Automatic annotation (TrEMBL):
The chain crosses the membrane at residues 33-56, 68-91, 111-130, 150-168, 189-207, 213-229, 236-258. GO terms for biological process: CAAX-box protein maturation; proteolysis. GO terms for molecular function: endopeptidase activity; metallopeptidase activity. InterPro entries: CAAX_protease, Rce1/LyrA-like_dom. Signal peptide: none annotated. Keywords: Hydrolase, Membrane, Metalloprotease, Protease, Transmembrane, Transmembrane helix. It comes from the Bacteria. This is CPBP family intramembrane metalloprotease. It comes from Saccharothrix syringae. Residues 157-245 form the CAAX prenyl protease 2/Lysostaphin resistance protein A-like domain.
Length: 260
């Protein structure tokens, strides 16, 4: 009697995306957090940003001209929010490695690198078209506007580069494609629903209405990395790769090596 060969796992990006709908959902047992945890984290982000802005105003400091407030105002809210997200997984779940799918896998790194490179291309084309439609001044990000016109010393410029390229992507992935994605999975919604919702919320949460459509395009390859691997490693790598050239440009502009 002939034995039918076992079904092989899908290979390639397109095959992996097609296989998403055929694979069963995976829900963490012992996870006692959901959308409330995400709302808490978002509240921490917003309130910390408001507090820093209010502190600068009451002290008479111009955030746009203060190197310290540029760094603190850019870095602190995101890092603090991500830290709260990690704490939530310890207090109400199994910890970040299991709940947020932070398992390390070299295959995921390769997926992240490929989709990150794709994201760079999409970002470049999108920004090129967007700048012609709305103008160069409206195509810049909030961080670029903060740094614009501010002469950052070498140490501050390096810190900003590390944040934009590495620390920021890790923290944002923990919040959106980690905590928020996990909250959606807990409701047993489809992975496609998690992908769409996290992409839209990620773009809207930057509070840059004119750039929301651009941010959606930027977030698509990053979300796909999370979608097809089911782990956060791939989306973190894709996010880092996508932010590298903009971060490097920001560093060179801040140092005066490149024109603004």
């Amino acid at each position: 009697m002939a034995v039918e060969p076992a079904e092989q796992p899908p290979t390639g990006l397109i095959a992996s995306v097609r296989a998403v709908g055929r694979e069963p959902e995976q829900v963490n047992t012992g996870q006692r957090w959901g959308f409330g945890a995400f709302l808490l984290v978002e509240a921490v982000f917003v309130l910390s940003a408001v507090f820093i802005t209010a502190l600068a105003s009451t002290s008479g400091t111009d955030i746009g001209s203060s190197v310290a407030f540029v760094l603190v105002g850019s870095v602190t809210p995101t890092v603090l929010a991500a830290a709260v997200a990690v704490v939530v997984t310890y207090v109400r779940g199994n910890g970040p490695w299991r709940d947020l799918r932070l398992k390390w896998d070299w295959a995921d790194v390769k997926v992240g690198l490929k989709l990150g490179a794709l994201g760079l291309c999409l970002t470049y084309v999108t920004l090129l078209v967007w700048s012609r439609v709305v103008g160069d001044s409206n195509a810049t990000s909030a961080i670029s506007e903060l740094v614009d016109g501010t002469a950052l010393p070498l140490s501050a410029a390096v810190v900003m580069f590390c944040y934009v390229c590495f620390l920021g992507p890790v923290c944002e992935e923990i919040i959106y494609r980690g905590l928020l994605w996990g909250a959606i999975e807990r409701q047993r919604w489809s992975r496609w629903a998690a992908f769409v919702l996290t992409t839209l919320i990620f773009a809207a949460s930057h509070l840059e209405p004119l750039r929301t459509s651009v941010l959606i395009v930027i977030a698509l390859p990053i979300g796909i990395a999370r979608l097809i691997t089911r782990r956060l490693t791939a989306s973190v790598v894709a996010h880092v790769v996508n932010n590298f050239l903009p971060g490097l440009t920001l560093l060179l502009v801040s140092l005066g090596v490149m024109p603004a």
